[in-house]
Amino acid sequence: MSEHVRIETTVTTPGFRRGLLKSCALIVTTCIALASLAACNSSGRISEENSRLRRENLELTEKAAQLVREIELRDGQIKALAAKGQSPGPAVEGVKPADLPVVSKLSFGAYSGAFDSDGNGSTDTVRIYLLTLDQHGRFYPAIGKAVVQVVSIETDQPPRQIVRKTFDAKAFGEAYVSGFTGTHFTLELKLESALPKDVKELTIKVTYTDAATGAALGQQMVSAVR
């Protein structure tokens, strides 16, 4: 009987209860920390997923716009061919009006993108080596107008335009380069101010309007900020 009393007294001592409460508090704190860590990881994954979905949405939007531009291109080609049909045809026998080159696609040359031009460690320039290709995939020295847009798309933020520049027909013609680096149109933009620190990459879009057919073509790329 006395032994039972001693055990009961030991269990109900205030020191034991304080120890038990501390143990419970430690368990609860650990659970909360683990839950917070899981929530942070989940939040990070959600942010990354949102960023990925926004980029995919931009790509789908651009593809839809590209389809519209291709339809406009075909319409422009038809009109151009119709106009040529009212004038003397090709001077070489066996050549059809449809064989004559028209700009059908844009492509970016190697080394296109954003870079640090003065070596101070900050990205300050965007340069595009633009190739205007005909229906056979060959470079064609086109005449027209180009609009270059540089946009930042970062996690959990709406797209923001960094810089935009229009190259009219004269400026576009002057951008033509042919040499050891290849044949292309060099379109260069200087950033008006330093990029925000949270910007890790830039989306560069070029929209070209052909003077011969009136068709609008587009191309875009993503460039890492160096």
Throw out a few tags for this protein.
30% strand, 5-stranded antiparallel beta sheet, 4-stranded antiparallel beta sheet
Your description of this structure?
This protein is α+β, with helices and mostly antiparallel strands and 226 residues long. The protein has helices at 2-11, 14-85, 169-174; strands at 103-108, 113-115, 125-134, 144-152, 160-167, 176-179, 182-190, 201-210, 216-224. Strands 1, 2, 3, 6 and 7 form a five-stranded antiparallel beta sheet that branches. A four-stranded antiparallel beta sheet has the order 5-4-8-9. A hairpin with a 2-residue loop joins strand 6 (176-179) and strand 7. It is globular, with a radius of gyration of 32 Å. The termini are far apart. Mean pLDDT is 78; it is low at 1-13.
